[in-house]
Amino acid sequence: MDASTASRLARRLRLKDLDALLTVIDAGSMARAAQRLALTQPAVSKAMSEMEATLGVPLLERDARGVRPTAFGEALADRARAMLDELGQAERDLAHIADPMAGEVRIGTTEPMTFTVAEAIRRLAAERPRVAFDIAIADTGTLVAALRARRLDVVVTRAGAGEAAAEDIAADWLYRVPLVVVADRGNPLLRRRGLRLADVTHEPWTLSPPGTFLDRLVVAAFAREGLDVPRAQVVTVSIAMRLALIAGGPWLSILPRNMLHHPTSTGFLRALDITVEDPAGAIAALTLRRRYMPGPVRAFLDVLRESAPHMPGVDAMS
Q1: Could you report the per-residue pLDDT of 131-188, keeping only the tens digit for each?
Q2: pTM
Q3: Which one of 130, 136, 156, 295 has the minimum C-beta count within 10 Å?
């Protein structure tokens, strides 16, 4: 596309219409999108039709079940998200220029990394008390999707080969932390030495849901010993729920070793004498490439790089 074509589109495509397109795609229907946008349904439909006429391609497929983006619609939506994100970043930049000690950092992390993230926040908040932090806690897949959708600035998680090789994501490696089989401090298995995974497959387990990032690591660890993953009596993405079950109970789980030092679990959580083979990845701060990084986000990453390798239960990157 040459400069004159881009200029023509800039004059004819309105930002509010691009925002409406994203809302329609997210809502899955013109009626629901109109409610969210506080507009009439005919007004939303007209805006979509005018965009299609301007671009000369169909953006949406309409049927009795609602609307879905075409390949053209998906392509435009990706660009629209980036444009609207840049405007949001500009607003944050202006606020930062007006007050360099203020701003916002939107962080995604998994539960085992909350202690690491909290320590970095404590340090930065002491230096910049007017910086606000919005924290999302979920599984790695959900967080990476939110990062790509530009709802997060940085994700702190265990990153595997897929994330590290992605062209759109930059991985800032922080430390390594092995996986361990964990149990309550009163579990009699803690008195046994030289255990293998095969010795505990018939114990009660609580594990991640199938297909999640941590589940894939656990499946691979058992497979390396020629074993199937044991049937989990309790399946949940919530590590807090797993810890609640383990406390005073018979359940086992597989978690990163730094959970043994997490403030919520130091009193009862212990590791069995089992080596869990885990060659996949390390802990990283993930950001989007070619996306401008506001000052508060850069400051958070600087503090994270300095503090993370010194957290208890972790190994420095070699």
Answers
A1: 999 999 998 889 999 999 888 999 999 887 566 567 889 999 999 999 999 999 999 9
A2: 0.69
A3: 130
Domain with CATH 3.40.190.10 in the chain: 99-176+281-310, 179-271
HEC secondary structure over the chain: CCHHHHHHHHHHCCHHHHHHHHHHHHHCCHHHHHHHHCCCHHHHHHHHHHHHHHHCCCCEEEECCEEEECHHHHHHHHHHHHHHHHHHHHHHHHHHHHCCCEEEEEEEECHHHHHHHHHHHHHHHHHCCEEEEEEEECCHHHHHHHHHCCCCCEEEEEECHHHHHCCCEEEEEEEECCEEEEEECCCHHHHCCCECHHHHCCCCEEECCCCCHHHHHHHHHHHCCCCCCCCCCEECCCHHHHHHHHCCCCCEEEEEHHHHHCCCCCCCEEECCECCCCCCCEEEEEEECCCCCCHHHHHHHHHHHHHHHHCCCCECCC
CATH number of 179-271: 3.40.190.10
